[in-house]
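Hi V.,

Quick status before I head out on leave. The structure for the redesign project is tokenized and pasted below; the design run finished overnight.
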């Protein structure tokens, strides 16, 4: 078992602590949070060992799980890496691109593993269809959330949209060619609503919308490709796969047939991929343990987390 320590005992940090304690792949050593009152309360309520000194916790672990505010990600990750510890770091990887690239350099220098917490990669609905998404040419995403003060220290692009950016980059095998974006601040000092249009070198276009002041929650993505339409509801953990194939010469009474302007007939049919329920956060933590033990590449590497940040920052840049 890998000895793990958690940095940050806020809302998400407490979830990570609970799951690491439950996992068969980790031994939870304890946690550190600079808020001494919070740390005492969490330690007393759940029985986790609280470390007053961050360096003492790092020394006793193999893996450091970083669930602190984004502004502190770089400093604490650097401390852990320089001590030769593997790091799991919540998204976004860091505040700036320079910081993210420095973590990659340090990771390679100290020969450690690093993974970024882009949890939607482990969503069971996305897992069920990701192998069906092949060369999509148009993608549309909507990620809407009711207002929550937690997370408003960063623009909505880094808070919410970056999930969809990472998913899109994982299925589009091409570089981003151009970005057009707009963002509006409504309640926060940074944009609360944003829309971005990404054009890729292979011709794919992605249209992303994110809002953190909506009246309802929504996390949906739609992928359009040759002869197929794939919809993923990340919130409800549901999928819809609609395919087309050449229509049979003798269609059945209940076959759905479309005919285009050239007279070609296509049959529409539906697929229902099996969705296997899971705990996505537990899965991302445990697959990271597997990558460390088996010396394989983490599912969401520091490099991939950096690319998601690069695109996100370019979107924010385009607001101005």
């Amino acid at each position: 078992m890998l000895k793990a320590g958690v940095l940050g005992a806020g809302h998400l940090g407490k979830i990570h602590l609970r799951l690491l304690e439950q996992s068969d792949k980790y031994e939870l050593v304890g946690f550190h949070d600079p808020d001494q009152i919070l740390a005492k309360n969490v330690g007393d309520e759940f029985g986790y060992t609280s470390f007053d000194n961050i360096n003492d916790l790092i020394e006793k672990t193999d893996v450091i799980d970083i669930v602190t505010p984004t502004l502190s990600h770089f400093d604490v990750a650097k401390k852990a890496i320089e001590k030769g510890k593997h790091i799991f770091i919540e998204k976004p990887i860091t505040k700036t691109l320079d910081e993210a690239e420095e973590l990659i350099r340090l990771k390679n220098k100290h020969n450690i593993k690093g993974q970024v917490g882009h949890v939607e990669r482990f969503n069971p609905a996305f897992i069920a269809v990701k192998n069906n998404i092949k060369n999509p040419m148009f993608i549309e995403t909507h990620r809407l959330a009711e207002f929550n003060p937690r997370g408003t220290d960063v623009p909505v692009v880094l808070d919410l949209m970056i999930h969809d950016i990472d998913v899109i980059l994982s299925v589009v095998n091409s570089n981003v060619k151009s970005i057009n974006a707009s963002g509006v601040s409504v309640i926060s000092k940074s944009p609360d609503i944003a829309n971005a249009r990404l054009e890729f070198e292979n011709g794919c276009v992605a249209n992303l919308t994110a809002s953190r002041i909506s009246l309802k929650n929504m996390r949906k993505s739609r992928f359009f490709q040759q002869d197929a339409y794939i919809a993923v509801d990340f919130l409800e953990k549901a999928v819809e796969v609609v395919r087309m194939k050449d229509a049979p010469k003798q269609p059945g009474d209940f076959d759905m047939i479309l005919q285009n302007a050239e007279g070609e007939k296509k049959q529409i049919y539906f697929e229902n991929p099996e969705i296997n329920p899971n705990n996505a956060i537990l899965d991302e933590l445990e697959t990271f343990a597997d990558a460390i033990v088996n010396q394989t590449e983490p599912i969401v590497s520091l490099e991939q987390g950096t690319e998601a940040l690069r695109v996100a920052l370019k979107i924010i840049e385009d607001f101005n």
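Above is the designed sequence. The chain has a mean pLDDT of 94.

G. will cover questions while I'm gone.

Best,
W.
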